[in-house]
Fold this sequence. Notes:
Layout: H1 2-23, H2 28-35, H3 44-63, H4 84-100, H5 104-111, H6 116-139, H7 145-148
Helix pairs in contact: 5-6
Amino acid sequence: MIVLRTIAALICGSLFGLGLSISGMLDPDRVRGFRNVTGAWDPSLIFVLAGGVIVASIGYRLLRLPRPLLDRRFDLPTKTAIDALLLLGSAVFGIGWGIAGFCPGPAIALLTLGIGPAFLFVVTMLVGMIAQDRLARRLIPAGSMKEARP
C-alpha cells in the first residue's frame, strides 16, 4: 500500500508540476503581472486556478468515493471557522508571495530547473514552517493543536 501511495503521489506531483509549467505559472513575472491590477494586468492566473478547481470539482463529484483509493479515510479539516490564526496566516502567506513572487507549489517545481532564487525561497519557506510549528506548540494548548492546524 505504501508503494502504491508513493507512486500515486509521484504521478500527481508530476502532473501538477507539468500543469504549472505548461500554463507558465513557474514564471514569477507572470504571477506578479496578475497582482498588477493598476498596470499591465495579466489575468492568466485566474484561468489556471479556475481550470484546476473545475477539473477537481468534477472529478470529486463524479467519483463520490466513500474513502480514498489508497487510504482508510479522507483527512478533512475539522475546523471550518474563520479565525484570527487563519487571517494572520493568509496575510503572512500573501506578503511572502508578494515579496518573493513565488507561490510554494511553483517554487518547488522550479527546484527541478536549478533556479537559485527558488531554492532560497523553498529553504526559507521551510524554516518559516518549522518556526511556526515550534511556536504553535508553545502557544496553543496540546488538546486544541489539531483543530488550530488541520
